[in-house]
Amino acid sequence: ITAVDDIFLRSGDNGAGALTLNGTLTTSAADGQILLQSDSGVTQTAAAIITTSELLLGGDLADEGSGNFVLTEANTVSFLAADLEDNLSFTNTTSLEIADLTYSSVCLTTESICGINIGGDLVLDVTGSLTQTASVIVGGTSDLTATVNICLTGADCTGDGLNDNDFVGEVTATGSTVEIVDSNALTTGVITAVDDIFLRSGDNGAGALTLNGTLTTTAADGQILLQSDSGVTQAAASVITTNELLLGGDLADEGS
User: Fold this and answer.
1) pTM over 0.90
2) DSSP summary character for residue 150
3) How many CB atoms lie within 10 A of CB 238?
4) Which mean pLDDT values do the consecutive 10-residue runs of the chain (256 residues) have?
């Protein structure tokens, strides 16, 4: 399916059925958009690559974003937003920004999604950097991989100017630099970076930082900064390996 501006596909609108992508989806405009909705999940076969500026997945109704959305081919997307009941797995061949997006077409279809808000597990595999200008809320676990940087240091989707990030389950991550800030409690698995790791819990609420996996920087001058308003603990074998370790900060909620 090829369009200049917009593509909207939905399955299970008056019944039940998955959306299966067997061919490429491409928008050619610089601000092109694709909106995918299903009550039973979305999958793509080999070579069914998505190429667009903005990709929106699901919506605010349960039958718009139920089932697993598994989009793990060599997609090329600049901006991503998802509102889903279940799991999301997404692979991208360029840097990816989690953003506040609105789909609007000449066919009068509209859908607004701010950031990522999913009930299940999140897997993101990005060639380039993973950044955010809208919040990330994940009900399950998060597995984040980027060939450059992961910068998820907080963003607002509620309009109060405060960080809305909320990783409920364990977070694992690999990148050159990995920075993750949670508004509440944060539990990490294995976090590996070349240069720097920054983890913070209780940024806009309260919650401890719990280390369940190793934290490792591989550069000779690697650094790790840990902050929390409710303390930091590490489980057995969750070893910290780095050149420089910094704990807390000059604000009370950074080192309480």
Assistant:
1) yes
2) E
3) 17
4) 98 91 98 97 96 96 93 98 98 98 95 98 98 98 98 96 97 98 98 98 94 98 97 96 96 88
Cα–Cα distance, 71 to 55 (Å, whole number): 11
Query: In three state form, how does the secondary structure of 2-60 look?
Result: EECCEEEEEECCCCCCCEEECCCEEECCCCCEEEEEECCCEEECCCCCEEEEEEEEECC
Question: What token pair was written down for 161?
Answer: 């100017």
| Rounded Cα gap, residues 9 and 3, in angstroms | 12
110-114/100-104 β-pairing: antiparallel
* Burial of 101 per CB tally in 10 Å (0-12, 13-18, 19+): buried
Phi, psi of 230 (to 5 degrees): -135, 25
Residue 63's SS3 state is helix
